Amino acid sequence: MIRCDVGQVDRIPIDMLPDDVLLAIFDFYVKEDQFTKKGIEAWQSLVHVCQLWRNVVFGSPRRLNLRLLCTPGTQSGMLDVWPALPLVIRGHVSRSDMDNIISVLERSDRVCRIDLDFDSRSQVEKVWAAMQEPFPELACLKLFCNDMKQVVPDSLLGGLAPRLRFLQLDAIPFPGLPKLLLSTTHLVALHLSNIPNSGYFSPEAIVTALSRATGLNMLSLGFQSLQSPPDPDSRYPLPPTPTVLPALTYFDFTKGASEYLEALVAHIDAPRLKYFHIFLFNRSGFHPSQLIQFISRTPTLKAHNEAHVVINYGDVKVILLSRTTGPDRGLLTIEVLFGESDFQLSSLARINSSSLPSLSMVESLYIYENQFIVSGWEDQIRVESTGGWLDLLRPYTAVKNLYLSEVFGPGVVRALQESVGERTTVVLPTLQTVFLEGLLPLGPIREDVGQFVATRQLSGYPCAVSLWNGVGRF
Prior knowledge:
It contains 15 helices and 20 strands. The strands form 3 sheets. A 16-stranded mixed β-sheet has the order 3-4-5-6-7-8-9-11-13-16-15-14-17-18-19-20, covered by helices on one side. The chain is α/β, with parallel strands linked by helices. The protein is elongated. The chain has helices at 19-30, 37-40, 42-47, 51-59, 98-105, 121-130, 177-181, 203-209, 258-265, 289-296, 345-355, 379-382, 386-393, 409-419, 443-458; strands spanning 4-5, 8-9, 68-70, 87-93, 111-118, 140-145, 166-170, 189-195, 218-223, 243-244, 250-254, 268-269, 275-281, 304-311, 315-322, 331-337, 364-369, 401-404, 433-437, 464-468.
């Protein structure tokens, strides 16, 4: 204990501090960084100071989260100098490292984290063989392979992962994954990217597998191919009512078939979902009825007051933000990939109107190009008929503030100007202010802006024009 008197401070040597005080100091020291090699091994510097510190550290291994880091260069015998602590296996595996990795994996009862990437499928096959036993302490599994064709056997991890909280597989074909997930009741994050066709599992199977993961916070599914072939053997019986994922706040679906997404969202509810990102290919005949229903029954996604249309070279995304402010604000993004020559505003308008039923509530609309847009590509938008812009804008019936970039502003204003007085239904009837990026337009563009303001005034739909400095872009 340290006593402070007026004008005097009594200091006690650190070796006389009680064990509980030392433990609190050590706890702060080792938990400052738990992810890097230096952070994971921080406790090792403490045990070399003196026997007292060594006893305090090894007396509280769980509180201090003591772990041993094993890289591909770590030989199994090097671990024997330490107590039997949990093992973190991490790194890039080369052919010369395989024996080391296999020998460490054989201590499966101690492995708490596996984070490996491989260059060849022959390496992966050897790892699969070493991972057929149960890993009862495994909390995190991350695997990536550039050349993976061997399908992961259903017996991976002995078919059980009771403590698994984080699972990330990149380009790993594992069609039996849903069976493993049935045992992961503590799962918090599931990231599956570049799923090959050989690793396909049905949407019904993944929904059933996640029905017990009540703590799932993040779900990400991404496919290598647009084709998601049906596999009758991977189908599971679905519950009579949608599966509720009460903790899910992040949902990402990338480059999969729209039919797969439809089947997936038809069978889940996510009442706390805040971030929903969809990346689809432009396909005719897409009628997302289930997607619309899913959005409509998700509180943070169904009411938006701000929209961003971001045009890139080959793809366009629409970002909708909910009325809620702060950390609970909902964010819905639908990104559509077009071919280099088939981008049309009318196609984007069709996708918007069919997929986003809440556009009629948007009050602030932003239209701009991606900052990495290829020079000259925007000319495809400039020369397109004004009808394309009008089709895109028509669903936004509640917009009060329209923000336009320097690239697309003139075309949009010209389209709006031509529409006033010629259409039975006025486009953007509640518009109050058009914000144009950059300096006030000159020449013919300035005349278009002036005519637009004057015509809107005469038609009973007055609005003003102001400058926009580009703030607010995504």
